[in-house]
Write a structure and sequence with these properties.
The complex is a heterodimer.
Chain A: H1 2-17, E1 24-25, E2 29-31, E3 34-42, E4 51-57, E5 62-67, E6 74-88, E7 91-107, E8 113-121, E9 130-132, E10 135-139, E11 144-147, E12 166-170
Parallel strand pairs in A: 2-12
Antiparallel strand pairs in A: 1-3, 3-8, 4-7, 4-10, 5-8, 6-7, 9-12, 10-11
Chain B: E1 8-12, E2 17-25, E3 31-33, E4 37-39, E5 43-47, E6 55-65, E7 70-79, H1 94-124, H2 132-158, H3 168-176, H4 179-198, H5 201-220, H6 224-227, H7 231-261, H8 266-296, H9 299-304, H10 306-337, H11 341-367, H12 374-381, E8 385-390, E9 394-401, E10 406-416, E11 426-433, E12 438-444, E13 453-460, E14 464-475, E15 478-488
Antiparallel strand pairs in B: 1-5, 2-3, 2-6, 4-5, 6-7, 8-9, 9-10, 10-13, 11-12, 11-14, 14-15
Helix pairs in contact in B: 1-2, 1-4, 1-5, 1-7, 1-11, 2-3, 2-4, 4-5, 5-7, 7-8, 7-11, 8-10, 10-11
Classes of the chains: A mainly beta, B alpha+beta.
């Protein structure tokens, strides 16, 4: 019994050691020309401070964005023109949500939460490449963590300190 | 960044220019001189020496503008992929340095052995004298070396290759350096020395005296030591040092030859020389010591710097020389003057060894041409170092002042890839030395309000090549990273 507790304690220690986990997507592969549910996992605050806002930049080629409201958080979106027009269910769409912003909440450093949106990955997106969703995490006391770095082609994800969450694009089904 | 190697490079200047040196540094750091180009005044079209490899290249150029000023710069471009920018150290032609060194030694031979010899023959020698032919040879060596040195100086100042020796601009540049005075006064001294040998003994004396003074003046006119502060002290000291050497070293060969030939009046020559040499050497040593103290500054610099090491080598030879000279003066001179043949033979041999040591010392002294003195190194170490970094989106000029280990300030100028203003939200400077296992030093820059970014009180712990990275937050979601390298001096 005592030994089991000891081992459990050790595992917790390891868990604490990887507290610098990145903000990431739950499902990291999706085919182009499909509807995708993006779940952003926020494992910790910024330098121990509670998270008060999560802002997500929608990359070009991702349209028809619908974020999921969250209890205790205010949900805002920024709309803008796309670089080009896309067709969706026979309609031409040239503008829409370019940024999603959950704010006014409070997620302590020791807790975990997820932020969800649903969007259409257009067929124009290049299959085989990684699509990046830059995330800015704002915290109490003005601290910020910017998950916006984009590893160079072929570079390891861990080569940068704050990689933007990536989604591997698969060929159209 | 280019997908394919360009067929040619085109540089456009705001004024008409003529190219001097064009160098392409490949990603692996090998430089290549570009010689195929066309110029129509303001635009310079340079043929690309195909093929270029993948990676970042540096096109370094040095041109002469219409007003005669050499201007240099370099341009980075990448073929296929960006790699670490190759180091673009000055491409020094070792043969140019060897030629400068040889010319300098020849000039010393002319001024010290030639002019000094002419002085000894006119003032110290008695009835019969020897060594005229040697002295004349030395004077001619000096006369050839003086203009040659000047031209080489011009080449070196411009970083131009040998082929351009005859070019007008090389000589214009040479004439703009302080060395022109050394070459000019040296030529006068050498000419007067020749005159003193040709003229009858009585008329020759004033010419020989002026020649000796001019030799000292020529040395005081340029060089590291003369350029050091305080000038009122260093220039006279260089002058006295030079005159002293010429008097001493110049007399050696004529004296040895005269003694060996048993020429009439050889005793008088020896007597006059030995009477004068002690005060002359005293002045020589005092002047040399003062100069060494000013130039080297600290004892550690004697060992740590090239300049100091050359000085140590020279001092060792000088001590050997003094030992010989003292033996000659206090042991051999009196019996030799009295006419003892054995003593004379020993004296002649000893003087010959002295003369060889003197020539080696000239070689060392000429080597100082390439080693800045510790005094100047200390000043140079305080100079800032800069680097230019660029990607397609952004460019930055980073200046670290002073460019050495310790507490420094970094100044950052940002531009967009097409030279527009770049309004960043935040700039972070990251310094690292991955190969030395040093964790990145990370500092957020502040905006002093003059359009630049600054990091003050940055402490750089080690000398050497540091990898620098600028994390430029262009907008909330967009960060541009620039990477480069900077060489921090000790």
């Amino acid at each position: 019994m005592f030994r089991t507790i000891m081992i459990a304690g050790l595992f917790m220690g390891v868990g604490a050691g990887t507290a610098f986990a990145h903000v990431s997507l739950e499902s990291q592969e999706a085919p182009v020309d499909s509807t995708y549910k993006a779940v952003f996992r926020v494992p910790h605050g910024c330098d121990g401070k509670a998270t008060t806002a999560v802002r997500i930049k929608i990359p070009e080629g991702v349209i028809d964005v619908k974020p999921m409201p969250k209890a205790g958080w205010k949900l805002e979106t920024v709309k803008g023109k796309y670089a080009k027009a896309y067709s969706l269910w026979g309609e031409t769409i040239s503008e829409g949500v370019t940024e999603v912003n959950w704010n006014g909440g409070n997620l302590p450093d020791e807790f975990y939460d997820e932020f969800v949106l649903r969007a259409r990955l257009t067929g124009d997106l290049p299959a085989g490449e990684t699509l990046r969703f830059p995330v800015v995490q704002e915290c109490e006391g003005g601290g910020t963590a910017r998950w916006i770095e984009i590893p160079a082609a072929g570079q390891d994800e861990d080569a940068v300190e704050h990689p933007a969450p990536g989604l591997k694009l698969l060929p159209k089904k | 960044m280019l997908q394919q190697a360009p067929s040619r490079f085109s540089l456009t200047f705001s004024e008409p220019v003529s190219p001097l040196v064009l160098t392409l540094v490949r990603p692996d750091g090998t430089p290549e001189r570009l010689t195929s180009f066309r110029s129509d005044g303001q635009t310079l079209d340079i043929d690309n020496p195909q093929p270029l490899g993948i990676g970042t290249h540096v096109l370094s150029w040095r041109v002469i503008s219409a007003d005669g000023h050499p201007v240099g710069g370099s341009l980075l471009f990448s073929v296929g992929a960006v790699s670490a920018a190759p180091a673009t150290g000055e491409v020094v032609d070792p043969w140019l340095h060897r030629a400068i060194w040889m010319a300098k030694i020849s000039l010393y031979l002319g001024l010290f052995l030639g002019v000094g010899g002419a002085f000894a023959l006119s003032w110290l020698a008695g009835e019969g004298r020897g060594g005229d032919r040697f002295v004349v040879t030395m004077l001619f060596a000096g006369l050839i070396a003086a203009p040659l040195s000047l031209g080489l100086q011009g080449l070196d100042a411009l970083g131009a290759p040998f082929e351009q020796f005859a070019q007008m601009i090389v000589w214009q540049t040479a004439f703009a350096t302080s060395f022109v005075w050394t070459a000019l006064i040296a030529a006068i001294a050498l000419g007067l020395g020749l005159l003193a040998l040709v003229l009858p003994r009585v008329d020759a004396k004033p010419f020989a005296a002026v020649a000796l003074i001019a030799a000292g003046a020529a040395l005081a006119a340029s060089g590291h030591a003369s350029a050091a502060a305080p000038q009122w002290l260093t220039r006279p000291m260089v002058f006295l040092h030079g005159v002293g050497i010429a008097f001493w070293a110049g007399a050696l060969t004529p004296l040895a030859v005269t003694l060996r030939r048993q020429a009439p009046g050889a005793e008088i020559f020896l007597h006059r020389f030995s009477a004068a040499i002690v005060p002359v050497v005293a002045v020589l040593v005092i002047a040399g010591t003062v100069l060494a103290v000013i130039q080297v500054e600290t004892f550690s610099a004697l060992v740590d710097t090239d300049y100091g090491q050359l000085l140590l080598a020279k001092l060792a030879l000088v001590i050997g020389l003094f030992t010989l000279a003292a033996t000659n003066r206090w042991v051999l001179t009196r019996p030799a003057e009295a006419g003892q043949t054995a003593a004379r033979h020993r004296l002649v041999r000893s003087i010959a060894v002295e003369a060889v040591i003197v020539i080696v010392i000239f070689g060392i002294a000429a080597g100082w041409r390439f080693t800045p003195p510790p005094r100047a190194l200390a000043i140079a170490a305080a100079e800032p170092v800069s680097t230019h970094m660029m990607t397609l989106q952004a460019m930055a000029d980073l200046t670290v002042a002073p460019g050495r280990v310790g507490t420094v300030s970094a100044n950052i100028m940002l531009m967009t890839g097409d030279f527009g203003a770049l309004d960043a939200k935040e700039v972070t400077l990251v310094l690292s030395r991955p190969e030395a296992g040093i964790e990145p030093l990370k500092r957020i820059a502040i905006k002093p309000g003059d359009g630049t970014w600054r990091v003050d009180d940055l402490v750089i712990p080690f000398a050497g090549r540091w990898t620098v990275r600028l994390d430029i937050l262009v907008s909330d979601f967009e960060m541009v990273k620039l990477e480069g390298a900077i060489d921090i001096r000790l």
